[in-house]
Write a structure and sequence with these properties.
Blueprint lengths: L4 E6 L2 E6 L10 H16 L5 E5 L4 E3 L4 H4 L4 H6 L2 H9 L5 E5 L2 E3 L1 H7 L3 E5 L3 E3 L13 H9 L1 H10 L2 E3 H7 L4 E3 L4 H13 L3 H14 L4 H14 L4 H11 L10
Parallel strand pairs: 2-3, 3-5, 4-6, 5-7, 6-8, 7-10
Antiparallel strand pairs: 1-2, 8-9
Helix pairs in contact: 1-4, 6-7, 10-11
């Protein structure tokens, strides 16, 4: 199981790579569990400020492992707890950056939706072909995609199962940036290094406020934003950032 998900650190960046080349990086139960645990452990590590999720050049992740599911009964599916793994991703506090070089399909596309910043190679492809297997997206695809793209576009992508290019994904707002394939991972790493220079508590507060924008009515969202904004005035990093600005020097943020 450990070999299917590789974990390393690069300074303050926690790097997790999906590594199932024999299955085109399909997410079986073991890999999904290891992925969620690895990201949570890095999120809990005070020495880590940013998380980076990688696949391979051919496939970021190509959905659930059909070989594992084809003979599953209704009881089997009910007794499994994949939803808990996806909920762990929703609770990550630190920024989660993804570099997508190849196919991100089905659960792989849902994994993209769970990330905060997505750098896509020009060769990346995205889609939800779940209906061709007799099922629907089951890890948030129908909900997150609709909130992100709107009803018409979500209906189009999910009901037809068509696969779109990285440029189409950028136009729809599914990814953050599109870069040449050879630059994909290094550009994602550069973003992570940049985020590591930001004040960690403010970074996490910004992520939380943006995430709440999808869940709360506008009035409640504005109040929540103001609450987080006010809270940050109790941090050392707020004092450092503003003093550094007035003193015309680079700030040094410590996460307090």
């Amino acid at each position: 199981m450990a070999g299917e998900v590789l974990v390393e650190t690069e300074g303050q960046i926690g790097v997790v790579r999906i590594n199932r080349p024999e299955a085109s990086n399909a997410l079986n139960q073991a890999a999904m569990q290891r992925l969620a645990v690895a990201l949570q452990q890095l999120d809990d590590d005070p020495g880590i400020r940013c998380l980076l999720l990688l696949g391979s050049e051919r496939a970021f992740a190509t959905g659930a492992d059909v070989a594992e599911l084809v003979d599953a009964s209704l009881l089997d599916i009910r007794q499994r707890t994949p939803a808990a793994r996806w909920e762990q991703l929703d609770r990550l506090c630190k920024p989660l950056v993804a570099a997508v070089c190849g196919y991100a399909l089905g659960a792989g596309c849902e994994l993209v939706l769970a990330c905060d910043i997505v750098v896509a190679a020009e060769t990346a492809r995205f889609g939800h072909p779940d209906l061709t297997l007799g099922v629907i997206p089951g890890a948030g695809g129908t909900q997150r995609l609709t909130r992100l793209l709107g009803k018409a576009r979500a209906m189009d992508l999910i009901l037809t199962g068509r696969v779109i290019t990285a440029r189409d994904a950028l136009a729809l707002g599914l990814v953050s940036r599109v870069v040449p394939r050879e630059n994909c991972e290094q550009d994602a790493r550069a973003i992570c290094r940049e985020l590591c220079q930001r004040p960690p508590l403010a970074l996490q507060a910004a992520k939380e406020a943006i995430r709440k924008a999808y869940e709360l009515p506008l009035g409640e969202g504005l109040a929540y934003e103001r609450q987080l904004y006010t809270m940050l005035f109790g941090t050392d990093d707020q004092k450092e950032g503003m003093r550094a600005f007035l003193e015309k020097r680079p700030p040094v943020f410590v996460g307090r």
